Amino acid sequence: MDSAQATEEVIRPPQPPGPVKWVRDNLFNNWFNSLLTVILLPMVFFALLNVLLWVFTEADWRAVTQFPLLYAVGQYPRDQLWRVGVGLSAVIFMLGASWGKWGGLLRSISIAAGIFFAVFALLPVQHPALNLSMRFYLGLNVLLLLVGNWIGGQGIVKGLFIIIGWAIVPFAFVFLLTGIKGSEVIPSVATTFWGGLLVTFLLSAGGIILSFPIGVALALGRRSSLPVVKGFSIVFIEMVRGVPLITILFMFSIILALFLPQDSRIDRLVRALMGITFFSAAYTAENVRGGLQAVPPGQIEAAKAVGMNGFQTMLFIVLPQALRAVLPAIVGQFIALFKDTTLVVIVGINDLLGIGRSIINSDPEFVQLQMEVYVFIAVIYWIFSYLMSIASNRLEAAMGVRTRL
Amino acid sequence: MASTQSVDQQSTGIPFYRDERILKIVAQVISTIVIIGLLIWAALNFLRAAEARNMTLTFGFLKEAAGFPISNPPIKYEPSMSFGRAFFVGLVNTLIVSVTGIIAATILGTLIALARLSTNWLLNRIALVFVEFNRNIPLLVLLFILYFVIFQNLPRVKESIVWPGPIYLNQRGIYLTWPRLTETGMIFVILFGVGVVLAIIAYSVLRRRRELSGQNTYYGQISLGILVVSGVLGWVLSGTPFRLSYPELQGFNFQGGLRLTPEFSGMFIGLTTYTAAFIAEVVRSGIQAVDRGQIEAARAVGLSTMQVLSLVIMPQALRIIVPPMISQYLNLTKNSSLALAIGFQEVFSVGKIAINQAGRAVPVFALVMLTYLALSLFTSLVLNIYNQRIQFVTR
């Protein structure tokens, strides 16, 4: 009995180090580090102090807080705002359903979104944009999230239906935003009125959804045995990767019209989306090619040996392994795409940054408040990019990238 | 037996629509027709549009007078000069901001990477905050903050901010104290230049001899000696090769020193910090990828810390670092085109002005794209040669 107790004591894990030991190990473990700490500590302290003082006392956040709707949707007609709302709610509902069905990463995203809506629904401030109906709408989204979760979790719908739903929602959303010419219920809204975070999200999501299949196709084309296809893919990929995104955006906004029939007109938002898509596709193609090269030839031979044709081999054997191997690189490319959508400002589209600039220019008083506006915009971009990189890490762990062959 | 069977199958067994050889030819023909058809269709549309809008398709305008000013050109330029000249000025600006940016970003990025690897928790976290901050915000937002918020709100010339150096900051830019060559300075430059060339030759020849013979040829010491001797000789012969030029307030403006315009400063600082964050991650992961056993083995055979770093860690880390570093350098060069948004006039900004002049859109655009393509291809060619030299020699 006694001896058993003693053994238990021996194998007990060591105590976590106390704060004093932690400080000594991490800040003062030799004379050089001690010196560094002594120099850096006051610098960090004063830098943080100044930042906090600026944020809470000096900064004038009027240019941000007065126009929440402008930052969100731009000039989208205020009496048609319900269309954006319905679209957003549809996405939220689908998110809830996916959370219920699959959990994991989707759970974290859903909970974060739910907390975001709940906080704004209950925010104890008086603001003209945050009226009762808006609070009600935000609360409704939380409810939709939970209802979706329940429906997905109860197994009422199959996973396939949720995937089909996800495939339909983006198109329905864009259709709802565009409207029908001459319709009473949803009159058409020109894209010149779209703006803010709405455009940033549409361009990023559209760019990601469209550039991925094109990128995979280009990567396959580059490895194709048909010289024409291969040559075209190589020329396309290398040309696009050799020039800056801004030149491609300009090409689509100015030059493209010259190469199309004279009476055809492509919307400028669509042209910007095309530019972003082709640009991103070339980079995705190179990432995917890396993955394709990493698939051992034995896999393809084995697939052929069990009687799969070329198409089946590619779809069921090669691509799943290739894409999993390069998942981190592809997500990194998507984060870059999200940040790159800011360049559409230069071709005159009012995305989040563009709205910020037009607010600054709208009032001479706000010219002195540029810092606040840009910091606000930077923080929004930062949060979403950072969330994407965290999601990428979790996805990697879940799919066993680099740990499982 | 086997061969006759396969011949039989080829001639009779497989229907033509499942024969891979025939399918390949069909796919080839179809893809060729589609691609060429699209190109012809676009070209026809274009010719019609060109005729309707009276556009030029030739590069003759390069010799015509440009007619627009360029602020602070790095080489002599006036609006009466040709468009070709204006374009060249833009190219020089692109090269200046890219090359200085690449050098500064490499140094800063390496320092940040070392800070990330530090055992000092505080320094480590500061470096992490720097990296995560810069990697997750768009470069354009960073440039807007630097240019519109900081550089445009600097005080007027009379009320310049003075930093030790002295460095003056005001609305017209940054004025640095800068060494300038004196009249006899050329002697130093020439002698030292010859010294550098000789040192490189001595280094490579002696090092090769050492590798072949195994005898110590003191290649490091000898080439360093040549450098020192040529430098000292040049300095003594020329008297004072350099004199510090101090910026001084004369009338309404500063004279002397080195002036960096607000546009260049914003572009340079933005590109440098943004790219440094990415380079820091590249360098850090490269160093961390070196196997710990390698370092322990090097210590075990008695190498000093510096020798471990220069003979064991760096040669292996560089193999991993260089390829992603190349793409960071290319990104920096391409990102310099964002200068358009803050009015620094490099290739793309100059091209943009010319596009707005009637009917030149297509040739100007072709010129801009080809310039960037050439820059990218040239950079990656040079760096890929370097990359091949440091990779493993495999048999």
Number of extended strands of chain B: 8
CATH level-3 fold name of the domain at 83-141 and 277-390 in chain B: MetI-like fold
Assign the CATH architecture of the domain at 83-141 and 277-390 in chain B: Orthogonal Bundle
The backbone outline of chain A, from C-alpha atoms, is globular
CATH class of the largest domain in chain A reads: Mainly Alpha
Number of helices of chain B: 12
Given the structure, what is the number of helices of chain A? 18
Describe the fold and architecture.
The complex is a heterodimer of chains A (about 400) and B (about 400). Chain A has helices at about 1-10, 20-25, 30-60, 60-65, 70-75, 80-100, 105-120, 130-155, 160-180, 195-220, 225-240, 245-255, 270-295, 295-305, 310-325, 325-340, 350-360, 370-400. In chain A, helix 10 (about 195-220) packs antiparallel against helix 17 (about 350-360). Chain A folds into 2 domains: about 75-190, no CATH class; about 195-395, MetI-like (MetI-like fold), CATH 1.10.3720.10. By secondary structure, chain A is mainly α. In chain A, about 75% of the residues lie in helices and about 0% in strands. By secondary structure, chain B is an alpha+beta fold. Among the domains of chain B are: about 15-55; about 85-140 and about 275-390, Orthogonal Bundle (MetI-like fold), CATH 1.10.3720. Chain B has 12 helices and 8 strands. In chain B, helix 8 packs across helix 10 (about 305-335). The chains are: A mainly alpha (about 400), B alpha+beta (about 400). Chains A and B meet through helix 3, helix 11, helix 12, helix 16 and helix 18 of A and helix 2, helix 4, helix 5, helix 11 and helix 12 of B.
